[in-house]
Write a structure and sequence with these properties.
Number of helices: 0
Oligomer: single chain
Order of helices and strands: EEEEEEEEEEE
Shape: globular
Distance between the termini: 40 Å
Number of strands: 11
Radius of gyration: 13 Å
Largest sheet: 7 strands, mixed
């Protein structure tokens, strides 16, 4: 059974940085895409970034150049480095792997 545990996030001023981590367990994930989504209250969950198992990455246009997704296949951990954060990045961020979701971590950016 796949389990996803997120860590990181928190409160930062605009222009600051945060890093999220998602520790996955239950199987090897080296052959699996791993992704980050985010969701604001009352809005649909939206795609943020994906780390493809072949090494490709893809980003939401709004975060390109500011966010970096990476993974460590040795520890089955997915990361999201978020730089130059903006107030509109305030959301709950979720890890998504093999149709499973983490419980989410709050990211708050003050202006």
């Amino acid at each position: 059974q796949v389990q996803l545990v997120e860590s990181g996030g928190g409160l930062v001023q605009a222009g600051g940085s945060l890093r999220l981590a998602c520790a996955a367990s239950g199987r090897s994930f080296s052959d699996t895409n791993m992704a980050w989504y985010r969701q604001a209250p009352g809005k649909a969950r939206e795609f943020v970034a994906i780390s493809g198992y072949l090494g490709t990455t893809l980003y939401l246009n709004a975060v390109k150049g500011r966010f970096t997704v990476s993974r460590d296949n040795n520890t089955n951990t997915l990361y999201l480095q978020m730089n130059n954060l903006k107030p509109e990045d305030k959301d709950i961020y979720y890890c998504h792997v093999l149709e499973c979701w983490g419980s989410g971590k709050q990211v708050t950016v003050s202006s």
